[in-house]
Amino acid sequence: MSTVTTPEISLTPERSTRTSLRSRLQDALPKIVLAPSFVITLVFVYGFIIWTGYLSFTNSKTFPSYAITGARAYQRLWRWTFESDPPSSWYTSITNMGIFGFLYIGICLGLGLFLAILLDQKIRGEGLLRPIYLYPMALSFIVTGVAWKWFLDPGLGLEQTLHQWGWTSFHFDWIKNKDFVIYTVVIAGVWQASGFVMAMFLAGLRGIDGEIMKAAQIDGATTIQLYRRIIIPLLRPVFLSAFIVLAHMAIKSYDLVVALTSGGPGGSAWLPSNFMYEYTFKRNEMAVGSASAIIMLMTISAIIVPYLYSELREKSR
Amino acid sequence: MSAIVSSGTAARRSNGARMFNRVVIYGLLAFFAIVYLMPLFVMLVTSFKTMDEIQNGNMLSLPSAPTFEPWVKAWGETCVGLTCAGIKGYFWNSLKMVIPAVLISTILGALNGYVLTKWRFRGHTLVFGMMLFACFIPFQSVLLPMATILGSLGRFGITLQNATGFRFGFGNPTVNLVLVHVIYGLGFTTLFFRNFYEAFPTELVKAAQVDGAGFFQIFRRIMLPNSLPIIVVTVIYQFTNIWNDFLFASAYAGTGESMPMTVALNNVVNTSTGVVEYNVNMAAAMIAAMPTLLVYVLAGRYFVRGLMAGAVKG
Questions:
Q1: Among A40, A107, A262, B24, which residue has the fewest nearby CB atoms (within 10 Å)?
Q2: Which CATH number is A263's domain given?
Q3: Distance from CA of B196 to the nearest CA of A (A)
Q4: Domain ranges of chain B
């Protein structure tokens, strides 16, 4: 880029600075390549989180306002947390989160492990069965929601079918019932994710040293003892990974509630993610929406940060 | 898990028990396979039935006179909001969004992974950790600022249009979504490539450096040719995630012509006007599911591997 103006005298130093500049550029190249991604992450993830946090301390309604007015949004959320009769939207959202999170993670782990153990018994046709359990994971929550909405509809789906088969007293209208609608979200969610958990456990089972199992069998351990005392404890890291994946999927769940229940009767199927969306974009309570987003983030962080910290420390050692 | 047996009678008894066990195991596996397949089966069957048959027949029975009508209608005629031109336009919208977003985020992820493993600097773990954490944030915590920024990009686009006659993509919802998906996909793509390159022999890179190869030369000649498996994993993972996204799509392109497929499908299904055509809804859902299902069928192994890598360890 630069032109040489005084050739005679400054030739040597100029060349040396130029090469050093060039080599310095070479040295910095990796950082220059990484920098855009890192800056993007800093701005669009961390900067935006701070921005959202800031908004939660203002009294933003339809449009953002940037005058700090204190923690009113959090105070309101806190008050709503205990408003159970009639339940506030926030109370409904967090109790639903509790029910959904507990059942979704618990059933997925249980069912996933169960299927993995069954599949690990030298099954013929494993190659056919595995993809059948796993394919729901490839579908969007919207498609899953549409399919299950139809399947669980009392007038069209399962109930109607069983009536036609002669079981006329069968009654299953959870999807229209405000007290039970969240359980239909659990059903569809488990259907979608349990196959994936199965695949994780299966990979874990295949990684266990066969010698350990043989030794235990020679010692006279029954199959159930073998699994309870030896294999399942060995799978602890898989439990942890699966828990992390499921927990963050549970907290992020938004689409499934929308597609399956459209929020349920009177918003009775809401999760905090739906609460955030509705309050921010539909009810013009931007500060409250932001505060709920921050609470969601804190909840996930409490699970993820220690996990990532231990993972990365382990790796860099 | 072979049983260890000594005497003849024990062998016979344990054979009987074994037979019983096998039957139970296969029975359970078959039962669950049916349960998992049921919703897809119902969706598929319903999409080939006439409305008459749906209202009077059984959900599980095969269509008596299969018709492609619902598929044709879903693709080209059904109403999404107020426009009744089918979902085909939205299908293309999704494709136009997915392809660039996948390509850009994959390339950036590959470069990041390369730097973070083979050109380490002080603090590389912190940088990686911060990018990794971005994978797990609930997107609600960035939704609103992003909307504000995209809004001002749109206003900038209008200014540009007034000045030059072109908007250069500023404010175009598809471009916006590409941007959003690249930004929030970076953590995942970086994670995939970093973990893959971590196991790649550093000696090869060192040797090439001694031979005078530069940063990009090593990347192009040594890293990339050996990265096919992780590229496939990353592309599939990103493709599935971006195609299936609903939150960003509904927040930033929730109305009008440029809706992606997921939002359009939700509008078709949850529309409250007129008679609900379940067969058309199911056909639309099948069309929306087709690309990711196809990827899954063709490359299931890589699909699973990507999901596992998403669990950090796997």
A1: B24
A2: 1.10.3720.10
A3: 13
A4: 8-56, 88-260+288-310
Partner B, chain A 280-299, Cβ-Cβ below 8 Å: 280-281, 286, 289-290, 292-294, 296-297
Q: Is residue A61 part of a domain?
A: no
Asked if residue A96 and residue A22 are part of one domain, the reply reads no
Judgement on whether residues A48 and A79 belong to the same structural domain of the protein = no
Please report residues of B whose CB lies closer than 8 A to that of A30. 115, 119, 121, 215
Would A167 be classed as within a structural domain?
A: yes
Among A145-159, B9-23, B99-113, which stretch is predicted with the lowest mean pLDDT? B9-23
CB-CB: which of A137, A157, A286 is closest to B307? A137
Instruction: For A25, name the nearest residue in chain B, comparing CA atoms only.
Output: B215
Domain with A7 in it: 1-55
Q: Which amino acid is it at A8? A: E
pLDDT at A308 (0 to 100): 86
- Report pLDDT digits (tens) over A200-233: 898 888 888 878 878 888 888 787 888 888 888 8
Same domain, A13 and A139: no
**Bridge partner list, B83:** B80
Q: Which residues of chain A does B43 touch, with a Cβ-Cβ cutoff of 8 Å? A: 146-147, 150
Q: Are B176 and B96 contacting, i.e. CB atoms less than 8 angstroms apart?
A: no
pLDDT of residue A8: 43
Q: What is the pLDDT of residue B11?
A: 52
For residue B5, the model assigns a pLDDT of 38
Same-domain status, A108 and A240: yes
Pick among A115, A139, A198, A252 to test the B interface (most B CBs inside 10 A):
A139
CATH superfamily of B88-260+288-310: MetI-like (1.10.3720.10)
Cis omega (within 30 of 0) on the bond before A306? no
**pLDDT tens digits, B59-98:** 888 888 888 888 998 898 888 877 788 888 899 999 999 9
pLDDT at B271: 74
Its ipTM equals: 0.85
Residue A301: count other Cβ atoms within 10 Å of its Cβ.
17
Residue A45 maps to a domain: yes
A183: nearest Cα among A173, A193, A192:
A173
CA distance to A57, B143, B150, B301, per residue, from A294 (Å):
11, 11, 21, 37
Residue A157 near residue B58, CB atoms below 8 Å: no
| Cβ neighbours of B288 in A, within 8 Å | 140, 142-143
Q: Which positions 71-100 of B are in contact with A (Cβ < 8 Å)?
A: none
Amino acid identity, position B78: T
In a domain, A261, yes or no: yes
Q: How many structural domains does chain A have?
A: 2
